[in-house]
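Reminder to self: tokens first, then the designed residues, so the page reads top to bottom the way the pipeline ran.
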């Protein structure tokens, strides 16, 4: 009797183990459901935001919006991390422009100390993000469009908007800025940051 009970329990555990999903799978399912639920309304909401930012809103012509799932372990999409990375990248670029190879002057040393403190902040934030249990965070809506930047001169632009779990939409940055910070993150940590898929 004990052997039969043991076998039944083993089969139950095996069945439960096969149906358990990883945190990544759960985040993916939640994200896909949110994309499906919001894909019809998100373009109209983004259009309203974009037109409010343009000099010539009447010239706005949407191209497309690509949506991807953002989890809480994607460093680029954490507001604190993004701002810290952005500020650090700008500080390094400014140092290179203003001081070049000078690391001995008092001003250069003070700037290097500031950059080191900023680097420490980035590393601390990155460590916190890396140790989080994976959860669905938001949707990245990469919206591309044409618009005039001056009369008769049309340009192609792209912005990344974040559609939060509570249905708010916020602007993250222009596409070129996301690429710049992503490349810097790869340079800093030796691996490309995780981006939505």
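Designed residues (197 positions):
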């Amino acid at each position: 009797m004990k052997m039969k009970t043991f076998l039944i329990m083993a089969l139950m555990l095996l069945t439960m183990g096969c149906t358990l999903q990883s945190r990544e799978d759960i985040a993916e399912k939640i994200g896909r459901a949110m994309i499906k639920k919001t894909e019809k309304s998100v373009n109209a909401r983004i259009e309203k935001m974009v037109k409010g930012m343009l000099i010539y809103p009447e010239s706005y012509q949407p191209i497309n919006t690509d949506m991807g799932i953002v989890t809480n372990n994607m460093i680029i999409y954490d507001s604190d991390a993004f701002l810290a990375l952005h500020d650090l990248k700008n500080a390094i670029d400014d140092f290179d422009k203003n001081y070049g190879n000078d690391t001995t002057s008092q001003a250069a040393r003070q700037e290097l100390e500031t950059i080191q403190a900023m680097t420490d902040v980035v590393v601390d934030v990155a460590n916190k993000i890396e140790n989080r249990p994976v959860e669905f965070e938001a949707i990245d809506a990469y919206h591309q469009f044409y618009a005039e930047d001056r009369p008769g001169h049309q340009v192609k632009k792209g912005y990344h908007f974040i559609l939060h779990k509570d249905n708010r939409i916020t602007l993250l940055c222009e596409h070129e800025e996301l690429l710049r910070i992503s490349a810097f993150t790869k340079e800093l940590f030796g691996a490309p940051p995780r981006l939505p898929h």
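Strands lie at 61-71, 136-150, 153-164, 169-174.
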